[in-house]
Amino acid sequence: MYSLKAEVEQTGGAAKAFSLSGISFSVEHRGLLKNVNIAFGAGEISALVGHNGSGKSTLLKLLARQMIPSSGEIRFGGHKLSEFDQRTFARSVAYLPQEVSAAPGMTVRELVACGRYPWHGALGRFTAGDSAKVEEALALTHVESFADRLVETLSGGERQRAWIAMLMAQDAEYLLLDEPTSALDIAHQIELLGLIQRLSREKGLSVVIVLHDINMAARFCDRIYALKAGAVVAEGRAADILRCEVLERIYGVRMEVMPHPHLGIPLAYVC
Amino acid sequence: MTAIAAAPGRLAGPPLVTIIIALAAAAFAVLRLEPELVAISQQAPGYDIRQVVLLYSTLPRMATALLAGAALGLSGSLFQQVLRNPLASPTTLGVSAGANLSLALATLYMPGLLGFGRDLVALAGSAIAAGLVFLLGARRGFSPFSLVLSGLIISLWCGALSAVLVMLNDRWLASLFIWGAGSLSQQSWVIPLSLLPKVAMAGLLAWLIVRPLGLVELGEAGATALGVDTARLRLLAIIVAVALAAFVTSAVGVIGFIGLVAPIIARLSGARRSGSVLLWSALIGAALLWLADGVVQYLAGAFSDFLPTGAVTAVFGSPLLLLLLHRLKVRHRVLPEQGRILSRRLQASPGLTLAAIAGLALLVAAALLVGRAADGDWALLQPDLYIDILPLRFPRVLGALSAGAMLAIAGTILQRLTGNEMASPEVLGIGAGATIGVTVTIFIVASPGFGLQITSAAAGALAVLGLVVGFALRGGLLPERVLLAGIALSAMVDAVVGVLSSTGDPRAMFLLRWMSGSTYGMETSTALAVVAAAIVLVTAAASAHRWLDILPLGPAPAAGLGLSLPRSRLFLFALAGLASAAATLCVGPLSFIGLMGPHLARECGLLRARPQILGAALLGGGLMVVADWLGRTIIFPYQIPAGLVSALVGAPFLMLLMRRK
Fold first, then answer.
1. CATH 3.60.21.10 corresponds to the domain B399-659
2. Which member of A111, A121, A150 has the closest CB to residue B341?
3. CA spacing 20 to 30 A to A219: which of A35, A193, B451, B656?
């Protein structure tokens, strides 16, 4: 069975998990992405930032195989995306869409158990190992307290965490998250992003995450890719991106940067 | 919001389109009338039968077509504007069917009412049907889709009841049957002359509300801000639209699809403002119906009096609806409409399963043993009669049980797949497909055996399933498209059957009996085959339970979990199709078991896919057994087919269920 980790170890960590070369995507002759070339690393958190309609979500959907690029090639761990069969891919790459459904009629635990589908398939047995993974995912994301409530009765933030728990149960090495903090208050945003950071460090997970808040990206992500009108306009570490002229290029707004009084990371604010 | 995208510049303006349609209609009229006109002009003045026919039949018929077409076009465009629903029309909202049913009921049971006012009876029926549809739709925020589905259910229910009436009273209702399908044939000027002032009055009312109606297009909040009382305006516009449809139905019967198509053509040809859409819809509707009637008369020749134009317009209207479907932008909903949250959940346990199966066994035993004796009294079957009676009752009870179970699992699959709680095999049009298969066969072979009936029904069902899935595949199997394609197809099939039946052929009664779902002729071998099919399909559905749990989460998460969307959807659609085809063979296309079974299972607290499937199968099977038993005993010594009983009981029950949300 394919394993990204094994591949990374074999190649001495050099293998880039996702590599995009010359990716374009257009709908009805409208180019949403134009000639994007990115190599997302393994074992680190990459943020996709940019204004609305810059192509962040589209790019993430292409990585998740939800859509097929109009031209160009995406490889995962050195293999073309089309080479993977669906469940093998899902065992390695988990995707959280921007809008998640209320999973009518399901409890949180049952939703999380759906994350085991890539492992047991349509007819396979739901083993003790599967249910151990489910419990672990519930514990990791701190949703045990409402594990037996129906998902439709939860608040937006709780629902989002329940879905993240499902992604954890999927036990993939690579997470693709489309604005996972959009429905969360500031405390839960910090908590969730902190959790993702912790998981990345402890379990060696790789993450590509679409974020709106540039400061959150700077604080929690190892690397930031900025998109504008379907093209990459900047990439690098937080210190490279959070600079006046770069931010103005990305957002078209005059912004300034100052160091965080305690943490030393840069903070951007609009003038 | 969904909308038919206007295509500016692609088609010429509405006047040109109207003129083209009207010219074509005139051409057909001239083609048909020319010999008569020539003959009349050559005759010396005096009594001539051809002149009488021209003056008192042909011309009134033409006038009626123009008036009815205009009224329906106006009615449809009012519905479409006020509901902001491009698929709304008297046909799709069940308004015409309601009028039709109320007239049939009045004819049979309260003929005095008709003397009092035919229009009032029709109006009452339409108003009730429209009220029910809107009640159901209001719960779902008047979403275009659920309104049309509610309308379809009302139409089916009215159709089912009319079918029972026709079967029980076939001597008196034969003419009603033709008329109900929308015959324009006239013997005098009475009908067009009485229709004219009514349509004119409604038109005047419509003209008065044109301007505020244009503001409604801005949306609720915008219109209110500009000082329009949107609620009252909507009500007024709907009353006018319902009245127009009722007048037409009362005068000439149900004319399918003109009210849907005329406004769409008007808008596609470039009419944009409310006022011009209303005006051109009316004119295009008039020209269209005139043309349709001309074509029908030209093609049918001497039989044209018996071939209802309304049914023919439906035959051609539904494919058009099918073609227009891709213009209906279905915004993808991740969430199905928020249903009532059921906190009560039943965990599937061996004890529960056992209890359910025991209950079902008890029910089957009761259905087998309790009945009416020869003198009509209720009686338990005496043991000495077992040998004679049980072989008669056993196959039909088994057949009903299996058919109910299969319909229920088909409904469960469709509801989970589409995220729409109104989905069911009845709506998918598979039953209608089986019907057309049988229809074609009985018109080729005089009296087909049961085996041939089954083969042709299965062929018809699979053809419709193939069409629906094939059509939907082009749209990426979007669930909404599948259902709408199914609706359009089943409307077309109904119309074809209507046309064939209304030729006054004795085979029509056979067809009607078949459509109403009689288990009467079931033989043991057939029953056993149906049972085997039910077991296989229920098992297959139950083992696909993980797909059925995950797919409702939405396409993106499902694909993210490694589920192949096209493959799983195709498999499940095929399963639902096969199950409903097999079931339709036993109980006809009209029963609402496919709709009721899954809902009842849900209401019992069976929320996960596997328990819901098994529960729905048991409940659906049980319900069908009860329906079969009721149909056998309730008006002894006559029988009502099981399919009809379940439809008549099921539809109102379902509406109560929906109301509670």
1. no
2. A150
3. A35
Architecture of the domain defined by B54-324: Orthogonal Bundle (1.10)
Ramachandran quadrant class, B419 (left: phi over 0; alpha: psi -120 to 50; beta: rest): left
CB contact A95 to B (< 8 Å) = yes
In which order are the strands placed within the sheet that holds A231-236?
A: A93-96, A174-178, A206-210, A45-50, A223-228, A231-236
Q: Is-contact A165 A135, C-beta < 8 A?
A: no
Complex ipTM: 0.85
What is the Cα–Cα distance from B169 to B186, expressed in whole angstroms?
25
Q: What DSSP string runs through B354-415?
A: HHHHHHHHHHHHHHHHEEE-TTS-EEEPPGGGHHHHHHHHHHHHHHHHHHHHHHHHHHHHHH
Structure tokens at B536: 């296989």
The answer to whether A115 faces chain B, any CB pair under 8 Å, is yes
C-beta of residue B228 within 8 angstroms of C-beta of residue B216: yes
Q: Which of B335, B557, B561 sits opposite A118 (nearest CB)?
A: B561
Strand partners, A50: A227
Domain boundaries, chain A: 4-99+173-270
Angle of CA points B313, B317, B318, to nearest 5°: 130
Chain A contact present for B556, CB below 8 A: yes
Helix ranges restricted to H, B419-521: 425-428, 430-444, 450-474, 479-501, 507-515
Asked whether B346 and B605 are in contact (CB, 8 A), the reply is yes
Q: Which two tokens stand for residue B319?
A: 């494919």
End-to-end CA distance of chain B: 23
Fold classified for A4-99+173-270:
Rossmann fold (3.40.50)
pTM above the 0.80 mark? no
- Give B340's contacts (C-beta < 8 A, 6+ positions apart): B660, B661
Adjacent-strand bridge partners of A207? A45, A175
List the beta strands (DSSP E) in B512-618. none
The answer to whether residue A182 neighbours chain B at the CB level (below 8 Å) is no
CB-based contact B562 A117, cutoff 8 Å: yes
B55 CA to centre of own chain: 37
Which residues of chain B have a CB within 8 Å of the CB of A82? none
pLDDT of B275-292, one tens digit each?
Answer: 888 999 999 999 999 988
The boundaries of every CATH 1.10.3470.10 domain in chain B are 54-324, 399-659
**Contact yes or no for B628/B367 (Cβ under 8 A):** yes
Q: Which of B585, B593, B586 is nearest to B646 (CA)?
A: B593
Beta strands A206-210; A174-178: pairing state: parallel
Q: Tokens 């159901």 appear where?
A: B136
Q: Per-10-residue mean pLDDT for chain B, 661 residues long? A: 41 78 86 74 67 79 92 93 80 84 82 75 89 76 67 75 69 57 74 90 90 72 66 85 90 83 84 85 92 82 68 73 60 40 64 88 90 80 84 89 94 83 73 79 75 78 74 57 66 67 65 70 82 94 92 88 87 86 79 84 86 93 91 80 80 65 48
pLDDT tens digits, B617-627: 999 999 999 99
- Rounded CA-CA distance A48/A227 in Å is 7
Asked if the C-beta of B332 comes within 8 angstroms of chain A's C-beta atoms, the answer is no
B397 contacts B457 by C-beta, under 8 angstroms:
no
Q: Which residue has the tokens 């990371």?
A: A265
On average, the pLDDT of chain B sits at: 78
Please spell the DSSP secondary structure of B86-128, one letter per residue. TT--TTTTTHHHHHHHHHHHHHHH-HHHHHHHHHHHHHHHHHH
CB contact under 8 A, B549 and A115: no
